[in-house]
Every structure is written in structure tokens, then in C-alpha cells.
Design goal:
This protein has ten helices and ten strands. The chain has about 300 residues and is α+β, with helices and mostly antiparallel strands. The strands form three sheets. It has a five-stranded mixed β-sheet with strand order 6-5-4-7-8, with helices on both faces. A three-stranded antiparallel β-sheet has the order 1-2-3, with no helix packed on it. A two-stranded antiparallel ribbon has the order 9-10. Strand 9 and strand 10 form a beta hairpin. The longest helix has 18 residues. The radius of gyration is 22 Å and the shape is elongated. The model has no long low-confidence stretch (mean pLDDT about 90). It holds the Pfam family Zn_ribbon_IS1595. This is IS1595 family transposase.
């Protein structure tokens, strides 16, 4: 796949970046974010005192730009930096830290941190979604823990809390990850029944939490990790979901170093998004990320408050 050209004007020229966003969010022309009017009901304002990109709706008589009603609304960050940050997030398999983005964009750490969190909101898939899998398809399910290690705890500080992550991966398909408070049949069953088609073959390890849930599916098979079994007959394995976890943990340890429990769902959405759009080029993936900006207004205080929960 062709790599993105970071010398492209959309990463350095705000007018070009705005036009790029308009092509993604308004593929058929400008749409009023308040009343959804379009076509001849929209006028592009072009006066000398009007900033570029402003339109006016003839129905609700309100001016707007492509960023209104999106995560970019009222942002003081130049649009070219928004587009560049989306490109960097979409193309970084293990994620990128806000500190690295701070250096690359020449902004403050707080700006980079908030920008990435708003882009992670773009990565959250719309709900409700249909179940994954189906007849003659395999859905792998597994859980893992992310967080600090006891040996890395500072003297006099508590051991960092590990958070449980439960992930479903359809072979050759999508991934869906969830932060769960505890790992047992009671917490995992509703997630599986809502997100996996019961006509699927459920594939898990030998954990005792899965047999009661497996009865709800067309079939349930497992590999006995306790006895060192990881693949049986080249078909029975959970390597797909384990590969997902390997990438997630490399991101946590190598890029982010730590993740707040309050924000974990956003990081999981980021990794799910890259997995689910893995067959796209980096540029196509970046455009898909930006297309999720609609209807996801997020203020700086919201993620800050979540971090202090």
C-alpha cells in the first residue's frame, strides 16, 4: 500500500486541510449541522470580512463551518495539525504518545493529550452494531490485563492497578474490546451474546468461565493452554485474539507507559479501529478516522474529569 506523503499541503495549509475535511464530511456538498438542510438551502459566504469555509443555512439562518458539530468545534488547533494528528494515529500500529505528538506538532502537552483523546472519540464505532460471526465463522474470545507491574511501583506507592480487557475477534474480520470490572461468566456472557452471532463457533482457551457461555452458541471449542496446547489440527487456536493483545500491550508499555482506567475504553477503541481498518492504506484509514468526527463534541474538561474519577 502507498504510504502517506507528509509533505502534502493538507498537513501544512489550513485552507487545504479544511477542503480535505469538507470532502470527507460533506461528500455531496455542505450540510447544516443543526437542521440537516443541504443543496440550494445552503449559501457559501464569501465577503471580505468572512473567514474561509463559512456557510449559512437559509432554513435556520445560522452560519456554520465543517467543524461545527464535530470533535473539532471551537478548537484553536489549526486544521492542518488536526489532519496530521489523525494521519499519525491511523498509521501508528502501536499508537503514539501525546508527548511524541507534542514534539511533532510543536504544541503543548495538554493540547496534544486532548487532541488525541478527541481523535479516539472519532474511533469509537457507532452503536448499535450487528453481531459478528455467523454460520461457518469463528469468533475467538479471550481476556487479558493491562496496567503497571509491581516491580515498577515507586517506593511507598501502591502497586499500579491492572484492568481487565475482554476482546472478541472474528477470524478475518473485526475486533471488539471491552473493559470489564471482573472476569467471570456473569460479566462476559452479556457481552458475548450481544456481540457474537449464536450461529458462530466460539473459540476460547480452557478458562472455566467459558463452558457455560459456550452452550449458547452453535459450537464451542477450546485449546488447553494449561497443558501447553496452543494449536490443534491447524484450526483450533486463539492466536488471532492473542496477536491483538500482543499489539495492545506493546502500545501500553512502549508508547503510553500507563493508561488511566477512566480512559481505557478510548484506547481500546483506537486499537479496535486500526485492526478493523487494517486492509486500508494509512491515508484511507486516516480519512475513515476523520469521518467519525460528526456528532462527537468533547470539551477539555470532560476527559480531565474522567481521569480524576
Amino acid at each position: 500500500m502507498a504510504k502517506a506523503d507528509l509533505t502534502n499541503a493538507i498537513f501544512h495549509d489550513d485552507d487545504k486541510a479544511r477542503e480535505h475535511l469538507e470532502s470527507i464530511l460533506w461528500p455531496s456538498g455542505a450540510v447544516c449541522p443543526r437542521c440537516s438542510a443541504r443543496g440550494d438551502r445552503i449559501t457559501k459566504l464569501q465577503g471580505k470580512s468572512t473567514r474561509p469555509g463559512v456557510h449559512k443555512c437559509k432554513d435556520c439562518r445560522k452560519p456554520f463551518t465543517v467543524t461545527v458539530g464535530t470533535v473539532m468545534e471551537r478548537s484553536k488547533i489549526p486544521l492542518s495539525k488536526w489532519v496530521l494528528a489523525a494521519q499519525l494515529m491511523a498509521s501508528s500500529k502501536k499508537g503514539m504518545s501525546a508527548k511524541q505528538l507534542e514534539r511533532m506538532l510543536g504544541c503543548t502537552y495538554e493540547t496534544a493529550w486532548f487532541l488525541f483523546h478527541r481523535l479516539r472519540e472519532c474511533a469509537i464505532e457507532p452503536t448499535p452494531r450487528g453481531p459478528m460471526g455467523g454460520a461457518n465463522k469463528v469468533v475467538e474470545a479471550d481476556e487479558t490485563y493491562v496496567g503497571g507491574k509491581a516491580r515498577n511501583a515507586h517506593k511507598g506507592k501502591p502497586v499500579p492497578k491492572k484492568n481487565a480487557v475482554f476482546t472478541l475477534v472474528e477470524r478475518d474480520g473485526e475486533a471488539r474490546s471491552f473493559h470489564v470490572t471482573t472476569v467471570n461468566s456473569k460479566t462476559l456472557k452479556p457481552i458475548l451474546l450481544k456481540n457474537a452471532d449464536r450461529a458462530s463457533l466460539l473459540m476460547t482457551d480452557d478458562s472455566r468461565v467459558y463452558p457455560p457461555i459456550g452452550k449458547e452458541f452453535k459450537g464451542h471449542a477450546s485449546v488447553n493452554h494449561s497443558d501447553g496446547e496452543y494449536v490443534r489440527k491447524a484450526f483450533y487456536y486463539t492466536n488471532t485474539v492473542e496477536s491483538y493483545f500482543a499489539l495492545l500491550k506493546r502500545g501500553v508499555m512502549g508508547s503510553f507507559h500507563s493508561i488511566s482506567e477512566a480512559h481505557l475504553y478510548r484506547y481500546l477503541a483506537e486499537f479496535d479501529f486500526r485492526h478493523n481498518h487494517r486492509h486500508m492504506s494509512d491515508t484511507e484509514r486516516s480519512d475513515a478516522l476523520l469521518s467519525g468526527a460528526k456528532g462527537k463534541r468533547l470539551t477539555y474538561q470532560q476527559p480531565r474529569e474522567a481521569a480524576n474519577v
